[in-house]
Amino acid sequence: MKYEKIKLNNGSEYEIVPGGLRESSDKTSLTIIALMGDKTLADVDSEFDTSENVEKIIVLDSEGESIDIKKGYRYEVGCKKQKDYVIGREEVVIKTADAATTEASESTETEVPVEKEYRDVTGTVVIIELSTGDLRKEVDELKATLAEQSAAIDTLILGELEG
């Protein structure tokens, strides 16, 4: 089976299962369901947890042509592995009981009635959730910046008072 792919800013590519790219209507979150391939969960988590890698995600069709670009995602808010996930369907041809007797009794070429069935194909996937912003993280970063600036101001004031 050929799948769509996504390409991260660092060049890594991941095969996406059918329906495995889900963007929220307000474009603040993106869920990606991708085949694990030869990567470990730690490898995947590390790549998607680096904001530079997910700032721009290129969606490629099964032939490798760009069909969409997702921008603005900065934070990974979830990354989990799931086994036995349905990654596609395959057609299975089953000969009917009538077909077996028809084949046995007739040696000439005739159409053999067959029945088609579809079977789910399963595999191990990784489910990644991205977000455009994590307010808690941004608040923590602002607090750290303010603490650094406050310490610098205190140092300047003490230097003026002593000097």
Layout of helices and strands, plus pairs?
Elements: E1 4-7, E2 13-23, E3 29-35, H1 41-48, H2 51-54, E4 56-60, E5 66-71, E6 75-95, H3 97-105, E7 114-131, H4 135-162
Molecular structure report:
There is one protein chain. The chain is α+β, with helices and mostly antiparallel strands and 163 residues long. It is built from 4 helices and 7 strands. Strand 4 (56-60) and strand 5 form a beta hairpin. It is rod-shaped and about 105 Å long. The mean pLDDT is 87.
What characterizes the major β-sheet?
7 strands, antiparallel
Number of domains: 2
Strand content: 35-45%
Pairing-aware structural class of the strands and helices?
Answer: alpha+beta
Taking all Cα atoms into account, the compactness measure Rg is 27 Å
Q: What is the strand tally?
A: 7
User: What is the residue-averaged pLDDT?
Assistant: 87
- Cα distance spanning the termini: 75 Å
Shape by Cα distribution: rod-shaped
Order of helices and strands: EEEHHEEEHEH
The portion of residues assigned to helices is: 25-40%
The helix count comes to 4
Order of adjacent strands in the largest pleated sheet: 5-4-1-2-3-7-6
Which residues form runs of ≥5 with pLDDT under 50? none
